[in-house]
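Sharing a chain and its predicted structure for anyone who wants a worked example. Both blocks are below, sequence first, tokens second.
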Amino acid sequence: MISDSMAMVLEERGGPLVPQSRPPLTPARGQVLIKVSACGVCRTDRHLIDGELPDIHYPVVPGHQVVGRIAELGAGVEDFHSGQRVGVTWLGSCCGSCDYCRRGEENLCDSARFTGYQNDGGYATHCIADSRYVFALPDHYSDLEIAPLLCAGLIGYRCLRFCGDSAKLIGFYGFGAAAHLIAQVALWQDRRVMAFTRPGDIETQQFARSLGVHWCGGSDERPPHLLDAAIIFASVGKLIPSALQAVRKGGTVVCGGIHMSDIPSFPYSVLWGERQLRSVANLTRHDAREFLDLAPRVPVHSQVRTYPLRDANRALDDLRDGQYVGAAVLTI
């Protein structure tokens, strides 16, 4: 049992997050108590605070890119040991018995619970997690470097897989935490990458070029060549018609966010030609194991800006305003 615990708590829609001392935490059977050392800041956290996700129950502690050490094991936990470095991702649990779970689609389980949403997350000095959804982390990375891989990397990787192996020319709409990680994977796979940023965002375009992408421009521009696939990381619905017009016939547009602003109407001709439009919802434990094994082999490097835990509100404001390139991580 830990007696000293502090968390940044969302008490109502719109925030701000409030620092609070919390009651002692004790893991139940099958759970682990984690002393948090770092937690990535994700756009989904921003959607949570802005009340753009359904059925939010207050108070809640955001944060689902959690890195820390096991402080205490609940009864029956045998796969981990005290002091071991672990990570916690967005998927906190699922039922394991519904049709989705039996088909290997646990990310779509109607009874799933998510870290930093239904379960208190990692904007805290300590958190509790179901040990079946906790991951041992590769030694290749520091705590700060690996935190963004636990959502930005995982969701980006799932999006990239949905583009298909035959997609050799891929556009990324929005070049933030996820795109800067997955661009490295795509380039390692000998794909060509084109980055679309906010119009006029020269700093981010220069950052993308430094990673080796083949072309950069604003999201209001057309690429020099039709794309085989596009991934929309930005939560901007009006990008969907633009991306569909930028992909070739038979191409795929993948929407990688949990929330997106309304999609404007567009003529059927934009979709016609067997173009595909699909979303990515959450992630599976298989995604996590596969990507955490792959990332050190690329190797994927994180560009990180750090903030103290008590500055979580500033980190979230900077995310909204595009005040940094790469990813933000809270240090605890």
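Comments welcome. The two ends are 19 Å apart (CA to CA).
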